[in-house]
Amino acid sequence: MKRILPLVVLFGVLLGVLSSTVFIVRERDYGIVFALGEIKKVIDKPGLYFKLPPPFQNVVTLDKRLLSIDAQDAERIQTSEKKNLLIDSYVKWRIVDPRLYYITFGGNERAARERLQAQIRDALNASVNIRTVKDVVSLERDVIMSEVLTNVAKRAESLGVRIVDVRLKRIEFAPEISESVFRRMESERLRVANELRSIGAAESEKIRAEADRQREQIVAEAYGRAQAIMGQGDASAAALYAQAYGKDLGFYSFYKSLEAYKAAFGKSTDLMVVDPSSEFFKFLKNPAAK
After folding, report:
1. Dist CA 30 CA 62 (whole Å)
2. Measured distance CA(69)–CA(114) in Å, rounded
3. Looking at 43-57, 82-96, 237-251, which range is the least confident one?
4. What are the backbone angles phi and psi of residue 53, rounded to the nearest 5°?
5. DSSP string, 238-287
6. What value does the CA radius of gyration of the chain take, rounded to a whole number of Å?
7. What's the CATH code, domain 67-179?
8. Cβ burial, residue 159 (10 Å; 0-12/13-18/19+)
9. 103-122 tens-digit pLDDT
10. By the 8 A CB rule, do 45 and 24 touch?
11. Which of 70, 83, 90 is nearest to 172 (CA)?
12. Closest of 30, 172, 186 to residue 95, by C-alpha
């Protein structure tokens, strides 16, 4: 039993030493092998590898996947009109030179993010400072993103990093000028609304005047036609009357006298002062008179 225990201890030590000489590089990682603090080699292919046990050699892994920087706070950038804009951006990047990246940042991803954010801020300032608000917000937004991408990508080459994409998520006015901008927009919309109302009122008056003119014209034409029809009717009636009465003039005279009597003595209180021998009373005296 006393002889077996040292063998077990020795086996454990050997197993520990052996396990420290084996390491795995995954598909998503780079492996950097250090020999006494100096970079010995860089491994970019996945697999099982061997090395000397510490402290002779050790391994550091770096992420080779696509990484992103999504700014937590919007950058305050001034346009050529001296107006402050708040711009949110995000960046897609990856490590392409593990050796240079490690030498620059010591494997500290946070330091790399801060350096890239500073470069992005400088590139945004360079592109936005020479443009107006309208250019930044709508007209040349894509151009600005392309300029920032080119600028930052060129500066990031010396860091062992490749910038894949740069996007501007949100652009808005700083709080101190938003209110004045909204007031100006409101006054402009009010001016346009008043102008449209004036145009509408003028058009309505024009339409109303034209409608009144057409109405008067139609009424006048209708009145003229009515008068013409009435004249034709009166003429036809007169012709019929003349034709009818012309057949017996005595009867016509008698009939007209009866109508005159009816009109003159329509009420019991009617009173007339006239000569009894007047022609008016000839049919009262003699119904057969001619």
Report:
1. 5
2. 9
3. 237-251
4. -70, 155
5. HHHHHHHHTT-HHHHHHHHHHHHHHHHTSSTT------TTSGGGHHHH-T
6. 56
7. 3.30.479.30
8. buried
9. 898 888 889 998 998 898 99
10. no
11. 83
12. 30
Asked if residue 85 lies in contact with residue 136, where contact means CB atoms within 8 angstroms, the answer is yes
Ranges for all domains in the chain classified under CATH 3.30.479.30: 67-179
Determine phi and psi for 171, rounding to 5 degrees.
-130, 125
For residue 275, the number of C-alpha atoms closer than 13 Å in the C-beta half-sphere is 3
Residue 116: what residue type?
Answer: L
For residues 254-270, one letter each, b for 16 or more C-beta atoms within 10 angstroms of the residue's C-beta and e for the rest, the string is: beebeeeeeeeeeeeee
List, for residues 191-214, the tens digit of each pLDDT value.
888 899 989 888 998 999 999 999
pLDDT in tens, 47-68: 888 888 878 888 888 888 999 8
How far is residue 282 from each of residues 18, 248, 269, 279, measured CA to CA in Å? 164, 18, 22, 5
